[in-house]
Sulfatase-modifying factor enzyme domain-containing protein (Pseudoflavonifractor gallinarum), 322 residues
Amino acid sequence: MNENLFRTQFDQLETTEKQALMERLAARYNMTFLGLHTFDRWGQNCTTGIFEKDSREYVFVPGDTVTLGWERFAIGLSQDSREELDYLFQEWEMEQDPEEMIRESMAPVRQAAIGPMLVGRELEELCWELVTMDDPRLTAHPDWLKQFREFAWSDLDSLTMHQSARIERTEKGFQICIYNRTDYNELLAGLEKQGLSLPTADEWAYLCGGGCRTLFPWGDGMDYSMHLHHFESPEDEDKPFDMEEPNFFGVSIAYDPYMREVVKAEQFTTCGGDGGRSICGGLGIFLGFLPCSPHYKPEVQEDKELNGDYDFYRPIIRVEAI
C-alpha cells in the first residue's frame, strides 16, 4: 500500500505531488479529476482531490488508524446541552446521569485501521426510480395518473403515494418516480457489479468524525447556533443547513436524523440517523440529533427490505496501492 495514501503522509505532500497522485487515481478508476480542494471544518482539514464519474462526485479520503467509539466526554457537556438534558430529565423524573444515558447509546471504544477511499460526496436515494409519464408501469395505474392530474392543478410541491409513485414540481416541469422494492443484499450486489461498495460502520464513523474524540465533530454538545433540519426558524429559511455542508473530508454526512445511511455489514445495518424516532418522540434537539454522532451504535435492522423514505446510501471505492 502506498504510504502517501494515508493521512499523515498525504497531508505532508506538496501540491504538485498530490495533483500527480490524484491524476493517477482518476486514470485507474476511469474518473474525471476535477481538481484539488481544501476542506476545513471543526478543527480538521484536508486538501484532497474531487472526481466525477457517472454524474456523481467523489472525494479522495486518505486512510488512517483512529480511535472510534465513546465512553466519556473529552471536554465536557456544553452548558446549553446540559440545561436541555436537565430540563428533559426533570420532566421525565429520571435520576440517571445524562452521561451514563448517552454512553448506553454509543458504540464501544476501539482502534480501527481505515484504508484510503474514494467516497460519494452526497447521500443518494434508494428504491425510487426516475421515469417518464408514458412508462408502462405508470400507465397501468389509471388511479395514479388521475391523482397526478389533480396534483398538477394544485398548489402542492410534491405528491407521494406510499411506496408506489411520486411526482414533484420542478422549475422545468414535473419529475416522476416509481417505487421499486429493494432489499439489502440486492443493493450490495448491484453496487458490486459497478465496482462500488458501501462503507463499513467503522469506515462510516471515520468519514463522519475523522477520529474526533468529542461526541460530535465540533464538540461535546449540540451547537444551537446551527441551522438544523426539523428545527428551522423562519428567518433561517433560505440558509443552508450547517450540518449538511461538506465536512473536513468534503463529505455531506450525518445531518438529518430521519435519514439512515446503509452500511456494509453481515446484515442490514444503518448509521447516522434513527428514522426520526427521537425527534418524533419529542426528545428535543440534543437527543434528536444524537444518532448523527460518529460514535452512535450502528443499528442492525430486523428486516432485509430497504425503506425508500428513510434509507439512503453512499457509494465508495476502496483504493488499493498505486
